């Protein structure tokens, strides 16, 4: 997604606001649901991933980690090959080959309509999927990147003393219509596949974050609209 928000999850700048903290956590979890790479393995082995998650969750709401198997975020024996094999088995075994697809339209379709609506959300904020973007508009990593963008945009507007309503209303409705709607379906399927605990903990933490964020947004702005996106209250798409 063509969006530059100056957020770097490896250097969390003092967690300047709840919106900034939320933004960093969405960005970090987006990286966790991407195809495993050497950076993930290094952060698992060194304990850096656990430290980042703990810092962000403690700042946002310590309940996010209560009862969660967070110890799996620090694994000195983490193996890139093993992570790649498990990720492929769970999430990536062909477009229709796994019940745990990370494409929301394959969890709660029809996929074309889901993707079209997601693109309208992105386009409303001037975002486009770049040619380098490997994932579709309904893929979890794309959607988390968008939530990261919206939360960081809220933070920037706050610092400038401007209204954040457009970003908050969009985030509320996007969570309710997209990842907040289908991630629990995916999680239920994931549990039946006896997954590596790391991926189950990533999923459970994300579900909790989406639920917390949506509840807070709805408490301030009312219930999310589940109408077609053209009727959404943050300006229309």
Kindly report the CATH topology: TorD-like
Q: Residue ranges: pLDDT <50 for 5 or more in a row?
A: 3-12, 231-237
CATH superfamily: TorD-like
The dominant shape is globular
Sheet of most strands: none
- Return the string of H and E elements: HHHHHHHHHH
Model description:
Pfam families: Nitrate_red_del. Keywords: Chaperone. By secondary structure, the protein is an all-alpha fold. The protein has one domain (18-231): TorD-like (Orthogonal Bundle), CATH 1.10.3480. It is 59% helix and 0% strand. It is built from 10 helices and no strands. The chain has helices at residues 18-32, 38-46, 48-60, 80-91, 104-107, 111-124, 140-159, 165-177, 179-192, 197-221. Helix 7 packs antiparallel against helix 8, helix 8 (165-177) crosses helix 10 and helix 9 (179-192) packs antiparallel against helix 10. The longest helix has 25 residues, at 197-221. It is globular and about 45 Å long. The two termini are 18 Å apart. Residues 3-12 and 231-237 have low confidence and may be disordered.
């Amino acid at each position: 997604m063509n969006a530059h928000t100056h957020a770097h999850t490896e250097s969390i700048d003092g967690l300047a606001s709840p919106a900034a903290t939320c933004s960093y956590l969405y960005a970090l979890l987006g990286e966790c649901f991407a195809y495993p790479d050497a950076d993930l393995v290094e952060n698992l082995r060194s304990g850096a991933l656990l430290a980042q998650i703990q810092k962000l969750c403690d700042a946002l709401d310590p309940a996010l980690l209560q009862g969660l198997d967070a110890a799996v975020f620090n694994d000195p024996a983490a193996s890139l090959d093993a992570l790649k094999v498990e990720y492929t088995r769970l999430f990536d075994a062909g477009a229709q080959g796994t019940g745990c697809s990370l494409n929301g339209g394959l969890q709660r379709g029809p996929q074309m309509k889901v993707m079209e609506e997601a693109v309208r959300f992105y386009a409303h904020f001037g975002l486009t999927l770049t040619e380098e973007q490997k994932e579709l508009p309904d893929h979890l990593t794309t959607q988390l990147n968008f939530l990261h963008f919206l939360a960081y945009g809220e933070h920037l507007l706050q610092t400038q003393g401007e209204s954040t309503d457009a970003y908050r209303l969009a985030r509320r409705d996007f969570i309710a219509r997209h990842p907040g709607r289908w991630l629990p379906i995916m999680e239920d399927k994931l549990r039946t596949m006896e997954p590596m605990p790391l991926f189950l903990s990533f999923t459970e933490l994300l579900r909790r974050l989406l639920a917390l964020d949506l509840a807070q947004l709805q408490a301030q702005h009312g219930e999310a609209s589940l109408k077609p996106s053209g009727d959404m209250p943050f300006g229309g798409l």
